[in-house]
Amino acid sequence: MRTLTRLSTKAPDTRHVDLDTDAAAARRDLEGRIQGSGPVARETLGQGGAGSARAHESAIKHVTGRAAYIDDLQVPADYLHLALALSPVAHGRLRRLDLDRVRALPGVVDAVGFHDVPGHTDIGPVFPGDPLFVDEEISYAGQVLFAVAAESHRAAREAVKAAFDAGVVEIDEQPASLDPVAAAERGEFVRPTHIQERGDWAASLEDAALTVTGEQFVGGQEHFYLEGQACLVTPTEDEGVVVHTSNQHPSETQKLVAEVLGVPLHAVTVEVRRMGGGFGGKETQASPWACVAALISRRTGRAAKLRLPRGEDMRVTGKRHPFHNRYRLGVDAQGVIQGGEITVIGDCGYSPDLSDAIVDRAMFHADNAYSLGQARVTGHRARTHFASNTAFRGFGGPQGMMVIEAAMDDIARRVGEDPLTIRKRNLYRQGRDITHYGQSVEQLGLLHELVERLEASSDYWARRREIAAFNAQSPVVKRGLALTPVKFGISFTAQHLNQAGALLHVYTDGSVQINHGGTEMGQGLHTKICQVVARELALDLDAVRITATRTDKVPNTSPTAASSGADLNGMAARDACLTLKARLFDFAAEHYELDREGMRLEDGALVAGIGESQRRIPWGELVQTAYFGRVSLSEKGFYATRSSTTTARPARGAPSTTMPSAPRWPRCAWTP
Amino acid sequence: MIDFLLNGQPRRCEASPDTSVLELLRDTLGQTGTKEGCASGDCGACTVAIGEGDAAGKTRYHAANACITPAHQLQGRALVTVEGLARGETLHPAQAAMVEHHGSQCGFCTPGIVMSLFTLHESQRQEDGERPAPLTPERLEAALGGNLCRCTGYRPIRDAALAMGDSPRGASRVARPSPDAAAPATEATPEAAFIQPTTLEALIAERRAHPEAPIVAGGTDLWLEVTQRLARFPRVVDITRVDELAALEETTLEDGRAGWWIWRRGDVRAPGAAVRRALPGVRPPAASSGLGPGAQPRHPGRQHRQRLPHRRHPAGAARPGRAAMAGGPRDGDGMAERELPLDDFFLDYKKTALREGEVIRAIFLPRTEPERHLKVWKLSKRREDDISAVLGAFAWRIEEGVLRDVRLAFGGMAAIPATRRGRRGDAGGAVPQRGGLCGGPCRRWRRTSSP
Fold this sequence. Notes:
The complex is a heterodimer. By secondary structure, chain A is an alpha+beta fold. Chain A has three domains: 7-32 and 180-221 and 319-473, Aldehyde oxidase/xanthine dehydrogenase, molybdopterin binding domain (Aldehyde Oxidoreductase, domain 4), CATH 3.30.365; 47-59 and 492-640, Aldehyde Oxidoreductase, domain 4, CATH 3.30.365; 73-175 and 241-301, Aldehyde Oxidoreductase, domain 3 (Alpha-Beta Complex). Chain A is 30% helix and 21% strand. In chain A, the strands form six sheets. Chain A has an eight-stranded mixed beta sheet with strand order 3-5-1-12-9-10-11-20, with helices on both faces. A five-stranded mixed beta sheet of chain A has the order 7-15-14-13-8, sandwiched between helices. In chain A, strands 19-18-17-24 form a four-stranded mixed beta sheet. In chain B, strand 13 and strand 14 (351-352) form a beta hairpin. By secondary structure, chain B is of the alpha+beta class. In chain B, the strands form five sheets. Chain B has a five-stranded mixed beta sheet with strand order 2-1-5-3-4, sandwiched between helices. A five-stranded antiparallel beta sheet of chain B has the order 9-10-15-11-12. In chain B, strands 16-17-18-19 form a four-stranded antiparallel beta sheet, with no helix packed on it. Chain B has helices at 21-28, 93-100, 110-128, 137-144, 155-164, 200-209, 222-227, 269-278, 303-307, 440-448; strands at 2-6, 9-13, 47-53, 59-65, 78-80, 193-195, 215-216, 235-238, 248-252, 258-262, 322-327, 337-341, 346-348, 351-352, 358-366, 372-379, 390-399, 402-411, 418-421. The N and C termini of chain B lie far apart (46 Å). Chains A and B meet through helix 3 and helix 5 of A and helix 2 and helix 3 of B.
């Protein structure tokens, strides 16, 4: 498929890149933001450390070992350790499972399997398909057969080993389906195929001067969060539990634990102080362990801890989706894509998990930052006997971008131009600004501007010449160079998730506590939220503290994912601050007989009036006075994104096809 | 009973022989700052510093993976963990630099990274005094190669390491009484014992009395049986304190070959450099920056596995040389020694020519003659601290433009290291060509051998 052609290393005539008319404005805007004089920078720099680099809120705790992760938490003396028994085969039928014999093994306090679940046995996060334990059908090597509780971590693991040795499990192994392409050909999908289509793609292929075709495999990836999956569950005096978990989506875990136990959601509280890394691997796949531990905890009335040893963690949890991608594109003599078709096949593993949205996102990014012209993009969700592949940084986006970037290189070889030249010619531009899913791409000038700046600042063409000279001299070791743009959609494609809540408390000494729905996994979200609050209340960053994310403080939260944590939760925190601020201003205007107009918070004080008549009331005094004035010092905040105007277009020609809505991101980030 | 110093405080703990330092810290002592990331010695989240008193009475630290270090090896040593670095609110320079340069994100690998940086900082200060020389990239990589971080991409950690040297010494010093080097070895009971012989004679006596007891040095292989396969070892023999095994001796064999008898690293910084000069294709682990393991598994005692382990994994390197064994099952014949060419040492997967009651005394590493070439390459998924998927060693001599004495060795290809001598008709005698070193013989190799 790949034809190697000598590439031109001559800098192309740049005149063919007709910069959009707003490029100059975009450049000025960008300069301003970078140098701190632009509207965004002006707005954010200043009080509370917002807009400036601050140490992570836990940095000192990290470096002194005081930051506690799940396995470090104080536990009741009689807590139980859990271990999982995993399927040794990828596909088969569980013929017999003798849990009574497991319970009789030395050191075993309790053992649970499918038939011990009082409530829901399916814990699929969006669509059903993820049994908490195997009932009959075994769908992947590593699927959980049963769980054992014992007095120590080692005793629990030894009991699982002893149980297998004692032959409590009998399995009829069956042939496993491990090839997603073959699975797709057989029509074995976890969800129906989606198609995105614009224009007469078939005609554009026929009419094109050149056709490029190719096929690629994009591999999977283990999350390797340094802190493995872990949770600690304690029973409450009611029918519920408190769950400490390393988890990107506490609200979902709350729901699933409640459903598994068969209790209302209000009986379950989930707390996440921090994760030792998440990367998407703890968005849906931290819940099963909480459900198992909750089950044991309720059955025994004791606290239960389940932390997966690394080897088991890697076996039971899903990874980044591997993708098989194909493309057939028609291009003109200049290498500009006229249209064509792209097919992506995501290897979803055995169940839907989040695969529907992930394959959609791969489709949404199959254009990366280039216009596909009249194109059809097809996305299959192949079912295989692997662990259910799941969210992972980029959420399918990178796998989708790979296909068009490979095509760019192919086109460059065919046309005999440098790949950067071809990439620039294909960038979205005016007149070619509608994506294959019908969204109009904005901020076109910024895209061209950024690529050109990078081209210049990286000294691309000099490097290209140097590398070409090196490669001419070196028969075996070769060097390469690429400059690729990235267009990435921020926020959830499932519209209802684009909401966030926050809870703000001001205590009578003036110290501030903020809670919000986002979780901290190292990305610095809590630091940012503290900065937002400190800025809004004109306080030092030290005056604001964040505590753990808890479902009983901010309910019904969205996962911390989709690059949206800071935007959504930051706005919710700000909303709470603004409401509380307004209340304090109203109180101060009346109590101190000040002019409400122009009242503001500045450097730790309420300031009213100007010049001679200016009054400053220190924050602590204001808070105290407001408390004695019976003014609430607590406030909740809420934020939801504005709706996008994009509408879904009907699909054509595919019988089992549904058309997903386009991603509705509040803004597009162009990240070269 | 283990007597040691934990962050300067004397501690006495009871632990079974197969307890790791990490278990001792987290489960027995409730010190949870040290994290378990992989329990295999790969990720470095559990890195601690272990100090030994040297002849001058100074404490020298090395970084160790607590998850695979036997707790009993702490006997008479000073253990420093991440909890023990700061004095009150004053952070150690390694910690301060990590905060200052945003070196932590999720923070889970951070304690291990801080301890690797602490060890680097301490050793720098011991060597260079008050004004340490700027860190070389090689030294930095060697110090941090055993630590994985998934969040930062390492640049901020590297920035922290480079800035750490600028911190003035002083307030940051940890109160650390020197460990008692003469502390008695752990007491043995009939049921459970962690035996730490200090002489070869005592080691051999132990081997004869308890041939079933596994030998441990760095634990990089043996301890995985504990952490991954839940094995129990009621009796373990630790060879890291046998004086005779700490030597590195330059010598000439009877057949006239010059080289080194080498065992564990001991204090081989200087000889290591000599070996490096004489064997340009081999990087002795003490000086390695690219091919060898990270700092934690490379500390004294851990060379055992890299060199010639008793429980040998076939993927490691086999270098031309000889093995010397001592001991044997006979009674009363204290130090019966024998030698073998290395080729004859490996019999099958994890099976060697060692007889019951025997231990490896040393291996001989021949000096490369000036006209001889040696290249060693390793393929692995990770540059530092990873078992090689394939390791290739290539030795040859060129005589009037013709290859002579070609010797190839590959690890990871079969149950034992595969070697090939350059006989006539093999690679020897071929004319080296650009793009294909030896033509026909290599093609035959390709046909007959694949990993």
